[in-house]
C-alpha cells in the first residue's frame, strides 16, 4: 500500500524540555489515522512540523513522497490542514479568505469555492466577515479551507474542538464521506476519544512527547471494551516502564 | 513566479481591506493641503517667500520622508509581519503550497508597492497644489526624479522594520522599537556627523544631490551603491529570520 505520510525519528525539544521525541509513523493512503493524546502531549508540535510551520531538531517528514523540508511546495500541493484553532483573516469575508488560498492553485475557480462552502453549510454566509462567525462556524470554515483544493491528504489538529453535537456529527460524516468517495487520507489529532473511535481506522497514542503505540481501531475494540480503556492502559504501561 | 504573484496579490488584497490604508490616504491628502495652505499664507500674507514653483513639491517630500511616510510604512510592515505572527493568521498564509521565500517576496513587494504608491500620490497632489499656490510651472524632471530617489532610503527603513517585526514578540513592541530606531538613527546623524557615512537615515534626503545646478554623478552613484548594498543585506537578513521562525 502507498504511504501517504512517513515520519522518521521526529524530535523537537522546547526550552522547557517539553516537545516530541523520536516519533516514527507511517500512514497508508486512504487511511483515517487518529493521533490521540492529552493536552501538551506533543500532538500539535508534530502536526506543526508536518506542515512546515516548525523545523524539527532531528528527523524527517515525507508527504506523498516529498520531504517537507526540501520540497515544501510539492509536499503541500495535495495537502489540506487545520492547525490548532486556525485563525483566518477576520476582517475578510469567507469568500475573500477562500480566494486568498485559491490563488496558489491554478485549478480552483469560484464554482469550486461555492461548492466547498456548500459542503460545510456556510454558503449562506459567504459574504459575512469571519469575525462575525461563531466558534463552530469558524471550525467548519477551517475545514472548508482544508478541502478547497480537493487534497489527497488532510491533516486536522483538534477538528472537533468548539463544535456542538450537530457539528460533531456533521464533521464525522464529512470525514467519512471524503474518505469513502475520494479515498482521502486523514491524519486527525484529538483528545476527544469518542470521536476518534467513531471515525478512525487506526490510532496512535502519544504521551509525554513519545509515541506509545499504534493499532487498528477494530483490533483495539476486540481486545478492549473501548478506545478509552486502550488509551489508559497504554499510558499506564508507559508509566510503569 | 506564479506563486510569488499569488502571494503578492494576496498581500495587496489584505492591506487594501484594512482601515490603515484609508487613514494613510486621508492623512496624506490633509498633509499636502495643510502644507499648501501654510506655504500660501506665508508667501502672500507674512511676506516670507518659502517656496517657488518646484520647491513646494520638494518641501512636501522633505517633510514627508521625515514624518508620516516612515510612520505609515512602519504600520504596514508591522501589520504584515508582527501582526500576522501575533494573531496567528500567518499559519493561514504559510500552510498553503507556497514556500516561505515566495511568501516573503510577496510581502516585500507589497511594502515596496505601498511606498511607491504613497510617494506617487503625494507627488501628484503636491504638484497640483504648487500650481495653485505659485501659478508657475514646476520642474517636471527634477520633481519625479526626487520622488523616485526618495523611495530607496524609505524602503531600507521598511526592511529594518521587517527585521524588527520578525524578532519582536508583539505588534506594540515592534512598532515602538521601529520608531525608536528611526529617531535614534536620525539623532545620531545630527549629534555625531561622522555616523552619516554608514547610517542609512543620513541618505533620506539624498535626492538633494540632483537639485543644484551642478550634479555630482559620482557621489550619486556612490550613495546608490551603498543603498543597494543595504537593500541586499537587509532582505537577506529579513528572509533568514522569517524562514527560521517557528510558528
- Residues in helix, % of chain A: 25-40%
Report the CATH topology name of the largest domain in chain A. Answer: Rossmann fold
Find the structural class of chain B using helix and strand composition: mainly alpha
What is the number of E strands of chain A? 10
Q: How many beta-strand runs of chain B?
A: 0
Query: Measured on Cα atoms, how large is the radius of gyration of chain B?
Result: 19 Å
Order of helices and strands of chain A: EEEHEEHEHHHEHEHEEHH
Largest sheet of chain A, in brief, is: 6 strands, mixed
The top level CATH class name of the largest domain in chain A: Alpha Beta
Strand fraction band of chain A? 25-35%
**Percent range for helical residues of chain B?**
over 70%
The major sheet of chain B is characterized as: none
Provide the domain count of chain B.
Answer: 1
> What's the tally of helices of chain A?
9
List unreliable stretches of 5+ residues of chain A.
none
Number of helices, where a helix is a run of at least 4 consecutive DSSP H or I residues of chain B: 9
Count of individual domains of chain A: 2
Give the strand order of the largest sheet of chain A, numbering strands 1, 2, ... along the chain.
Answer: 6-7-8-3-9-10
Strand content of chain B: under 5%
Amino acid at each position: 500500500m502507498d504511504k501517504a505520510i512517513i515520519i522518521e525519528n521526529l524530535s523537537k525539544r522546547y526550552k522547557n524540555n517539553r516537545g516530541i521525541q523520536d516519533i516514527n509513523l507511517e500512514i497508508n493512503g486512504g487511511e483515517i489515522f487518529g493521533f490521540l493524546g492529552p493536552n501538551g502531549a506533543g500532538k500539535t508540535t508534530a502536526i506543526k512540523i508536518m506542515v512546515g510551520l516548525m523545523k524539527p531538531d532531528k528527523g524527517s517528514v515525507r508527504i506523498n513522497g516529498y520531504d517537507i523540508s526540501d520540497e515544501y511546495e510539492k509536499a503541500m500541493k495535495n495537502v489540506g490542514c487545520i492547525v490548532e484553532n486556525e485563525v483566518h483573516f477576520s476582517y475578510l469575508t469567507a469568500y475573500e479568505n477562500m480566494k486568498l488560498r485559491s490563488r496558489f492553485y491554478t485549478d480552483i475557480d469560484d464554482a469550486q469555492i461555492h461548492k466547498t462552502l456548500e459542503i460545510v453549510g456556510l454558503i449562506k454566509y459567504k459574504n459575512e466577515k469571519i469575525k462575525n462567525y461563531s466558534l463552530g462556524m469558524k471550525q467548519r470554515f477551517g475545514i472548508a479551507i482544508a478541502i478547497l483544493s480537493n487534497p489527497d491528504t488532510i491533516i486536522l489538529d483538534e477538528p472537533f474542538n468548539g463544535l456542538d453535537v450537530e457539528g460533531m456529527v456533521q464533521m464525522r460524516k464529512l470525514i467519512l464521506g471524503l474518505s469513502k468517495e475520494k479515498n482521502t487520507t486523514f491524519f486527525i489529532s484529538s483528545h476527544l476519544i469518542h470521536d476518534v473511535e467513531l471515525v478512525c481506522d487506526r490510532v496512535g497514542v502519544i504521551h509525554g512527547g513519545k509515541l506509545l503505540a499504534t493499532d487498528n481501531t477494530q483490533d483495539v475494540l476486540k481486545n478492549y471494551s473501548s478506545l478509552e480503556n486502550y488509551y489508559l492502559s497504554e499510558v499506564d504501561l508507559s508509566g510503569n516502564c | 513566479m506564479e506563486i510569488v504573484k499569488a502571494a503578492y496579490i494576496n498581500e495587496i488584497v489584505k492591506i487594501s481591506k484594512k482601515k490603515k490604508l484609508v487613514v494613510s490616504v486621508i492623512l496624506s491628502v490633509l498633509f499636502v493641503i495643510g502644507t499648501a495652505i501654510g506655504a500660501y499664507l506665508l508667501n502672500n500674507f507674512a511676506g516670507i517667500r518659502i517656496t517657488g514653483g518646484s520647491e513646494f513639491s520638494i518641501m512636501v517630500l522633505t517633510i514627508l520622508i521625515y514624518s508620516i511616510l516612515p510612520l505609515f510604512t512602519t504600520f504596514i510592515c508591522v501589520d504584515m509581519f508582527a501582526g500576522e505572527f501575533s494573531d496567528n493568521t500567518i499559519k493561514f498564509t504559510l500552510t498553503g503550497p507556497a514556500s516561505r521565500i515566495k511568501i516573503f517576496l510577496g510581502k516585500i513587494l507589497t511594502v515596496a508597492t505601498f511606498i511607491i504608491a504613497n510617494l506617487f500620490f503625494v507627488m501628484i497632489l503636491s504638484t497640483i497644489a504648487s500650481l495653485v499656490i505659485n501659478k508657475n510651472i514646476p520642474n517636471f524632471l527634477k520633481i519625479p526624479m526626487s520622488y523616485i530617489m526618495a523611495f530607496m532610503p524609505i524602503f531600507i527603513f521598511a526592511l529594518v522594520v521587517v527585521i524588527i517585526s520578525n524578532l519582536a514578540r508583539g505588534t506594540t513592541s515592534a512598532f515602538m522599537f521601529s520608531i525608536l530606531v528611526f529617531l535614534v538613527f536620525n539623532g545620531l546623524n545630527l549629534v555625531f556627523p561622522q555616523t552619516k557615512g554608514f547610517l542609512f537615515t543620513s541618505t533620506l534626503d539624498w535626492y538633494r544631490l540632483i537639485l543644484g545646478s551642478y550634479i555630482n554623478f559620482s557621489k550619486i552613484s556612490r550613495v546608490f551603491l551603498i543603498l543597494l548594498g543595504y537593500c541586499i543585506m537587509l532582505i537577506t537578513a529579513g528572509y533568514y529570520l522569517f524562514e527560521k521562525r517557528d510558528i
